[in-house]
Design goal:
About 55% of the residues lie in helices and about 10% in strands. A 5-stranded mixed β-sheet has the order 1-2-8-5-3, sandwiched between helices. Strands 4-12-9 form a 3-stranded antiparallel β-sheet. A two-stranded antiparallel sheet has the order 6-7. It is an enzyme of class 1 (oxidoreductase).
Length: about 475
Amino acid sequence: MAAFITFSFLLLIIIFVYRNSKRRTNKVKLPCGDMGLPWIGETVEFYKAQRSNQLFEEFFQPRMKKHGNIFKTKLMGSPTVVVNGAAANKFFMSNEFKLVVSSWPTSSVELMGKNSIMEKQGDSHRCLRSIVTSTLSVSGLTAMVPRMCGSIENHMQKNWLDREEISLYRSTKMLTFTIVLECLFGIEIVPETLFGVFERVLEGVLSPPVNVPWTKFARAKKARAEIEKVLVGEIRRKREAMEGGGEEEDDMLFSKLVAASIRGEITEEEVVDNVVLLVFAAHDTTSYAITMTFKMLANHPDCYSLLLKEHEEIASNKRAGEALTFEDVKKMEYTWQVARETMRLCPPIFGSFRKTITDINFEGVTIPKGWKVLWTTYGTHYDEKYFPDPMRFNPSRFADPVQAYAFIPFGGGPRLCAGYQLAKLNILVLVHYVVTRYNWSLVYPDEPILMDPLPFPSKGMPIKISPKCD
């Protein structure tokens, strides 16, 4: 009897809250749109379009044509407002912590870590971000370039030498993973031992958070526990050495994070979660950007000729076996134009979710407190207002300044990707080594791109390679 009364009481509360919220939302002008089916909304349509890498063509674009640049929907159980355009990007990105906060699906938070910079707000976010950005200062990047060259040399010696064909995507994934561990963190772990485990975690980051043995999420949780066990061991070994005077804090990010934990600024859990997050953020999207850059170059030989000339001029001033310097990288201006144009057309992420912490009035509509907001890269990247003839590959459009908040593969505002400079360095240095040392061609020029949960070439982007003569 008591259980029945309790249940009835809870049900009445739920009905009261629901009706109250309906009454409140009926009084304001909400964005146009379709909320779809009860609870699941338009999640099925969203996932279907995402899987085939047709989010813009099959999900966002039809709704933008019907409802405008701002429309409502329901995704993964949450009322969501999709916003498009540079003004919307600027408004929501620059008002992080004031009007909106980061809001990722439950599975992403569980696997990346509740204590990662992705979930932190205010002072905690600023503390972690300052540690990361201090590693990627000009002096940090200058010191990183030779280390990165060494990692690339070793990878090519091991995986490219005497090969006629390689999977460019798989090779760059392993290489960028190695660079993150060796050059950013300075963690002394054989990358191959953890690469496959991290890949299993990635498979679950946007899956339904159902923790039963046969699901992607459960497999990802198990893999995440394996990674955590290894990292905790490394953290405690490093901490013991630093506290005992055997090691000092250096310019590597892992050392800086452990030193911050010794000072009591962050916890061991925060060290673990931020290593996990930054490994994913710094290697998976970068490897896709590199792969697609080569696809674009293969399909646009005139652009490749200009890029190759830039790198041959840099190489002509280096001795045999001499590593690149940060000054050399700064000369790769056209290459960075090519990379940015590639990321405009083939963004490594489709956008990012935020949650409103107050009612927001924007462009004549109200977004209620507690709703999700999703900004998309496609909303400006494919808009001729910002990029004339937007579907044409034209790297030279980046020779001139681009309107603020129109090009957003790395986000913007306080949440601007902290690893932006590392990604840029990684792309430019690897492109240099490939184009100056190898002749290459795509095996499948029209290879389809799929998405699960991030975009990837369906066949791994195999390329034929042959060493250039000295």
